[in-house]
Design brief:
Elements (H helix, E strand, L loop, with lengths): L1 E8 L1 H5 L3 H11 L2 E8 L3 H7 L9 H9 L3 E9 L1 H9 L13 H5 L8 E3 L3 H11 L4
Antiparallel strand pairs: 1-3, 1-4, 2-3
The structure holds ribavirin triphosphate and magnesium ion.
The site of ribavirin triphosphate (RTP) has 9 residues, from strand 4.
Subcellular location: Cytoplasm
Keywords: ATP-binding, Cytoplasm, Kinase, Magnesium, Metal-binding, Nucleotide metabolism, Nucleotide-binding, Phosphoprotein, Transferase
Catalytic activity: a 2'-deoxyribonucleoside 5'-diphosphate + ATP = a 2'-deoxyribonucleoside 5'-triphosphate + ADP; a ribonucleoside 5'-diphosphate + ATP = a ribonucleoside 5'-triphosphate + ADP
């Protein structure tokens, strides 16, 4: 059974010219792009997307980072797409948690600047796709 997940190539990934590399990994895994957009993120969108982290020490910096430059938002589809993309991304901390061979493990150094976001559950995916692609 196919499912959908919301993927962001965060502003660090765009600024470093890694969009093509990251999209290639998604496509080579066998996942399908069903929506794709380069956009600058309004603060309200970032706040809604990361509402679960409100009040945490990294929240203000995270909002500044996400709104600080263009990012790529995408909806990705395939069997177990949510877990499959989280596997491609690697753990949140690119050095301590993400394995070599994952996007974060191969390209990241700092937890904040970890290149990509992927929805972490079916409920998150539905919520996040609604935020970024309300017409989908
Ligand atoms: P994401 O939501 O972006 O896919 O990442 P995640 O599930 O792996 O990690 P999460 O705990 O949801 O954290 C969201 C994002 O906040 C930044 N962060 N910084 N400085 C820090 O300690 C810290 N912790 C989290 C990262 O950009 C992380 O991806
Ligand atoms: Mg998360």
């Amino acid at each position: 059974m196919s499912e959908r997940t919301l993927v962001l190539i965060k502003p660090d990934g765009v600024a470093r010219g890694l969009v093509g590399e990251i999209l290639a990994r998604i496509e080579r895994k066998g996942l399908k792009l069903v929506a794709l957009e380069l956009r600058t993120t309004e603060r309200a969108v970032a706040e809604t997307h990361y509402a679960e982290h409100e009040g945490k020490g990294f929240y203000a910096g995270l909002l500044d980072f996400i709104t600080g430059g263009p990012l790529v938002a995408a909806v990705v589809e395939g069997p177990r797409a949510i877990a499959a993309f989280r596997q491609l991304a690697g753990g949140t901390d690119p050095v301590e948690k993400a394995a070599t061979g994952s996007i974060r493990g191969d390209f990241g150094l700092e937890t904040q600047f970890n290149l990509v976001h992927g929805s972490d559950s079916p409920e998150s995916a539905a919520r996040e796709i609604g935020i970024w692609f309300p017409n989908l």
